[in-house]
Design a protein that fits this description.
The chain folds into 2 domains: about 260 residues, Aspartate Aminotransferase, domain 2; about 120 residues, Alpha-Beta Complex (Aspartate Aminotransferase, domain 1). A 7-stranded mixed sheet has the order 2-10-9-6-5-3-4, with helices on both faces. A two-stranded parallel sheet has the order 1-14. It is globular, with a radius of gyration of 21 Å. It contains 13 helices and 15 strands. With about 375 residues, it is of the alpha/beta class. β5, α6 and β6 form a beta-alpha-beta unit.
Amino acid sequence: MKGIPYGKQNITQADIDAVVNTLKSDFLTQGPKIGEFEQAFAEYVGAKYAVLVGNATEALHISALSLGVNSSSVVLTTPITFVASANCIAYCGGKIDFVDIDPDTALMDLQQLEKKLDSKPLGYYSGVIPVDLAGLPVDLEQFKRIADKYQLWIIEDACHAPGGYFMDSLGQKQYCGNGRFADISVFSFHPVKHIACGEGGMITTNNENLYHKLYRLRTHGITKDPFLLQHNHGGWYYEMQDLGYNYRMPDILASLGISQLSRANEGIMRRIEIAKRYDEAFKNTSVNINIGKYREGNAYHLYVIQVEKRKELYDFLRKHNIYAQVHYIPVHLMPYYRQLGWKEGDLPVAENYYEKCLSLPMYPTLTIEKQNFVIEKVLEYYEK
């Protein structure tokens, strides 16, 4: 059987046509497709504002800058995430601190978060970056309660969870990135994500001041908005008001994103179907496979199991052309962060999770035949 990756983009003829039409248009970058994608995405998640950038790392970076992160800032995040969730603070000269995870969800542990906050004077920490790991949204209402108590801002790293949601205390759906509880949310359009642009990132917020700041930081800190200019010499005039970056996305990729977004909900429904088939296959077996606790609103970017002899299973699957992956190596154990003083044993729940976690193939075009083959081989390894 042909190789089965853990994730894969789905490019349709409609996607191709959208890109070709943009290639034939007057604008390849800084054109109308940028605003069109931003507006459509803001409506999709229910936010007031959206800012499109070249990738999610750029999105995290200027989000941190817009919130004032500098050399005096100390910010909290989870160790079970991609390194960019932490690195964005280092880019701004700040210090990152890590909070261990909940063993049931692998999301940041709220009790451990409050424990760490209580260990320092009020004001020691500036903000927190919770991560919607694998598509499972954090409870941002609870994070907001804690953030208000300890005077923190929130950047929601929602790169895995466009279209995901949690149920708030009133029983209402709160979609990732809607701006109701987080100051800023960040999304990724990497090829294995729900919306594939090749590369790309989106920032959403309900704060108008942050929106204008992010908009400037994306393009060298420059604005031409007559209402924001300090002076105005004429129609050509612009001002660099911040030290910004060239973090723009071209219209070519934005047109692909618009097309992909139009069927995003269809993709999530398919991911849920795949997850349910995995759940059914593994829950009644004698093999000890931890599939975690199901929660409504999971966008299922990944399907993660926890098993003993993880490396042996990983190698066995690869021999059968099943390319499972590990998400993630704990960030605090990366050499860069080790040199800052982190070591094994500092975050035991995250470290135990890492020893057992494995992401199985999960993408909308995964066929039943291929999924059955994955299930068969996982069970075969442990039952042999």
